[in-house]
Amino acid sequence: MTIRDQVRFWLLACAAFFLLVWLFSSILLPFVAGMAIAYFLDPLADKLEARGLSRSVATAIITALFFLVFIFVLLLIVPLIGSQLAGFLERLPGYIVDLRNQAGPYIQHITDKIAPETLNSVGESIKGQTANAIKWAGNIFGNLLTGGLALLNFLSLAFITPVVSFYLLRDWDKIVAKVDSWLPRRSAADIRQCAREIDVTLAGFVRGQSTVCLLLGLFYGLGLTLVGLEFGFLIGLMTGILSFVPYFGMMVGFAVGLGVAIAQFGIGLDVVFVIGVFVLGQLMEGNFLTPKLVGDKVGLHAVWVMFALLAGGAVFGLLGVMLAVPVAAAIGVLVRYALAQYLDSRLYSHAPHPIAAGANAGGDVNVVAVPGNAKQVSGGNAVVNPQQPAGLDTDTGTSPKKSDGRNDPQL
Question: Of 385, 285, 300, which Cα lies nearest the Cα of 335?
Fold first, then answer.
């Protein structure tokens, strides 16, 4: 199979993958969730298996403990979040009115210094861009909400995901070995290397970033609650969860928290305390949490992750959000591999033969005599052994044969 055939095959495989995801996107979420759970629990199952437990017993223990802890957390946090969310939505119109009253004099003072024509044009532009942004965000969240509600109505996520995760976790090593046996032998080493890099990138980012989001959510929630902000725990927790999308969670949480603080306290010292909580959270994330838990070895740029999550949510809804990071990690590793192959190829660093380079540059190829039996090339000069008679081959000492041009070396 030529390189062109291989490229065509892999492009067709990728196209078929995305086509199947699009066709079955309405039912794939429980299976993708189960696969993700099995993938992240596989190292723990391997450790228990190494201690003497059978794979089936280890899988049963791990799966049961995981879903028990998950249900306990849901029962503990969901009622608290639900009550705070209901209260926040009830108070939201009042917050908007109070915020307008608080910020009205300052806005009026600024608008008085701006020409009416400029103010009108800026206002129209802001209205148009805001409408487009709201429509775009509404489409994304509509896709997410529609997919999530459909799955919750049929209870498929609750019943299918544990079963899928159990069987995949039990047979994970067998599945990996079987897929490895299907790899083309000539490219098996490169494919395994790329798969290992994808595994390191994906596991490092998801595990590290999930831990960062959890710690940030707890810090923001407790910090905003301690400074007396209404619904501070809800705002802080949602800020931490949304921080999985780099910068997006911080910006949304800061805007909501600052707006609620101004509406609740007015312009004063309490607002400074709220700002201080977010500043401390950012300093803690940038200087300690992210470098220690995620690091810079995962190779996923923040902008690339943000684009992948938003694009996946816009196209496939909640399923697309779950697939976004694995697909982004795979594409990143494959692009780096292709770039490394290009930089190591003659397409990047093709150096012509020195004699050809001198001739192409217009230099004369002169023959000079030096002692010894070695040939040298320097500055377009061909150097031969003066001890051999003229007309003899400099390597063999025989008369050169006439060439028909078919076997001449390519310079």
Answer: 300
> Which positions ≥6 away from 243 have C-beta within 8 Å?
212, 213, 216, 217, 249, 250, 253, 285
Provide the whole-model pTM: 0.66
Three-state DSSP state, 346 = helix
In angstroms, the CA 249 to CA 210 distance is: 13
| 328-353 per-position pLDDT tens digit | 888 888 888 888 888 888 888 765 54
Residues 375-408 as b/e (b if ≥16 CB within 10 A, e otherwise) read: eeeeebbbbbbeeeeeeeeeeeeeeeeeeeeeee
Where do the domains of the chain lie?
17-116+130-346
Check residue 295 and give its pLDDT.
66
Would you say how long the chain is, in residues? 411
Q: Which of 200-204, 284-288, 321-325, 351-355 has the lowest mean pLDDT?
A: 351-355
Q: Which amino acid is at 91?
A: R
CA–CA separation, 277 vs 224, rounded Å? 7
Residue 178 above 50 pLDDT? yes
C-alpha 372 chain-centroid distance: 61
Question: DSSP assignment of 370-385, as one string?
Answer: -SSS--EEETTEEEE-
